[in-house]
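User: Before I run my own analysis I want an independent prediction to cross-check against. Here's the chain; please return only the structure tokens and, at the end, one sentence I can use as a sanity check.
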Amino acid sequence: MIRILIVGCGDVAMRAANLLGDRARLIGLTRNADDVARLRARGIVPLIGDLDDLRALSRLRTAPGAVMHFAPPPAEGRGDPRTGRLLAALAKARRIPRRFVYISTTGVYGDCAGARIDETRPRRAQSPRARRRVNAEDRLRAWAARNGVSLAILRAPGIYASSRLPLERVRQGTPVLSAEHDVYTNHIHADDLARAAVAALFLGRPNRAYHATDDSELKMGEWFDALADAHQLPRPPRVDWDEAEARIAPVLLSFMNESRRLSNDRLKRELRVRLAYPTPQAFLEAAAPRAPRRQMPLAF
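Assistant: Structure tokens:
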């Protein structure tokens, strides 16, 4: 039975663990001692370690056969030293893992002016957080090439699920861009991302990137309109760029600076992923609350 090290035991990682079931022995790296009971309850062997402290990763010498890396880079800095420390710790293991899956971001491409792109598009990351992901990808590619590791990189866009919808933003009436200024945004349900990660572990080609995205080609305003409609909330107001810069927080505004449409042909063809939610609308129709039916008055 293959031993799989899960790095970053958050929501998507736990969904992937559920899919793996009895096919693997799972080891979960966490820096939070409070996670121990939660991981054990899911049949995962907890391993306490901190990607911000190389000395705390000494127990990674347990030699996993594969690694699934879900942990994000730090919130600051130019690169991803966390991934660097992980690789340094794995280099000291009794043997190097043969397979490795890393969850990256589609932000590595930067703005594509709404063009439809595949994985051959050059990376031109614009935001600091996306540049840190580029650094992580580069570190992993170099390490995998040196050690003969089959690396699959999943570039994920906005991840959503019932527990991770931006409903508070809708309730607060945070504006979106007007139709003439709006940008394309991309999505993946957390269950489908977990399914893609497991498929990449077993079917991914060496040193290969995949767009872990659904079939939709929504603009950002359309997404928030659909979310508002499904939850019987007012649609967000539309504003031009000048007003957006005055009313929207810089972090949110940064996502409105980039527009791209992602091809997922490689995901479907090579990893054979069948999406449970091919569009966010499909999810909303299945999961969003329904308005109560109006009672018709009785006729006499």
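Sanity check: The CA atoms of residues 184 and 219 lie 4 Å apart.
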